[in-house]
Automatic annotation (TrEMBL):
Native organism taxonomy: Eukaryota, Fungi, Fungi incertae sedis, Zoopagomycota, Kickxellomycotina
Segments forming domain Thioredoxin: 49-176
Top-rank taxon: Eukaryota
Keyword Membrane in record: yes
Protein name per its UniProtKB record: Thioredoxin, mitochondrial
Key words, A-Z: Disulfide bond, Electron transport, Membrane, Redox-active center, Transmembrane, Transmembrane helix, Transport
Length: 176
């Protein structure tokens, strides 16, 4: 192979790539340093520190005696399920869902708006990806699964996507 071919096909591309990388690094280094500094600051802030008193807690329905009202939508965990659902004086609809579930993402906004408009029931959302124990405890095998609780007992349930008319009837049935 002649020297000119070697330079054209091997040496110049390697040299060009090296110069390109050096140029890009020097150009973006100040931006990357600023990002790294802001990221470190965010990690050190109290909002991201586990166990911080500033970490938001799950809101319970029964925060004070006699203050429960219908139309609330909250996310519950295994720790807050008893207080928020089983001990609630208001009938509660529990939506067992997952972020990757298409029908869950379709049902959730319709169910939330129906609960808020009706105002006689509350809604609790349980992410089955993080709350495996609750899903097992209530025999969740398909998503979305919606279970209603009245006075701490399972009342009605359905599986899969349903339309607004069905949901209105479902709410009427458990709100009596």
């Amino acid at each position: 192979m002649p020297l000119s071919s070697f330079l054209i096909y091997f040496a110049l591309p390697i040299l060009g790539t090296a110069l390109y990388i050096i140029g890009i690094e020097s150009f973006y280094s100040h931006r990357m340093n600023a990002f790294a500094t802001s990221f470190r600051t965010a990690l050190k802030s109290r909002a991201f520190v586990l166990g911080s008193s500033k970490v938001p807690r799950a809101r319970l329905f029964s925060t004070a005696e006699g203050s429960e009202r219908g139309g609330s939508v909250i996310h519950v965990t295994g720790k807050t399920f008893k207080d928020s659902v089983l001990d609630s004086k208001i009938p509660t609809i529990v939506d067992f869902h997952a972020d990757w579930c298409g029908p869950c993402r379709m049902l959730s906004p319709i169910l939330e708006s129906a609960v808020k408009e009706d105002g006689r029931v509350n809604m609790a959302k349980v992410d089955t990806e993080t709350e495996h124990e609750l899903a097992l405890q209530y025999g969740i095998t398909s998503l979305p699964t919606v279970i209603s609780f009245v006075n701490g007992e399972v009342s009605e349930s359905f599986i899969g996507f349903k339309n607004r008319d069905f949901l209105a009837g479902f709410i009427d049935k458990i709100a009596k």
